[in-house]
Description:
The protein is of the alpha+beta class. The chain has one domain: Nucleotidyltransferase, domain 5 (2-Layer Sandwich), CATH 3.30.420.100. It is built from seven helices and four strands. It has helices at residues 12-15, 21-29, 79-95, 115-125, 140-144, 150-166, 169-172; strands at residues 34-39, 44-50, 57-63, 102-104. Strand 2 (44-50) and strand 3 (57-63) form a beta hairpin.
Amino acid sequence: MATGPRFRVPFRRRREKRTDYRYRKALIKSGLPRAVVRISNKHVRIQIANYDPVGDVIVATAFSGELRSAGWTGNCDNTPGAYLTGMLAGKRCLSAGFDEVIMDIGMHVSTRGSTVYAAMKGIIDAGVKVPHSDEVVPSDERIAGAHLSNEMQERFSTIRDKLQKEGVGAINNG
Length: 174
């Protein structure tokens, strides 16, 4: 006599390998807003999400394509591009009234020096507190684009200085 199903179907987002619910629950229990970093083949997207039982509320967002208006001509998905996007997200997070977040890298594999941690370094340099280990952050040379051409290094430093001085207005105003 059967007593129930033999197989339990996982949640749809788990089946699609999009959400690790055990990891998500641990992040939500921290009580801090999450800095959700998602990297595609061409861009980096960072959203500052605050938990709500109805659904997460996005309080700030930054997209690496926005760097084009500030003069960035390099790839938007490399380490310097992720750092600048993180700095932009951090500035927007501060202007939204949040000064501390926790990183949510989702289903990305945690690798030392990866693009995800370059974005985290940008958020930290913008003035937002993020609990982290210094071992995972890429080197300053890598973030500054030492592996790229001199022209890209100059553009990186120009845009970084512009973001540090003008904040979010550096991107919004072009």
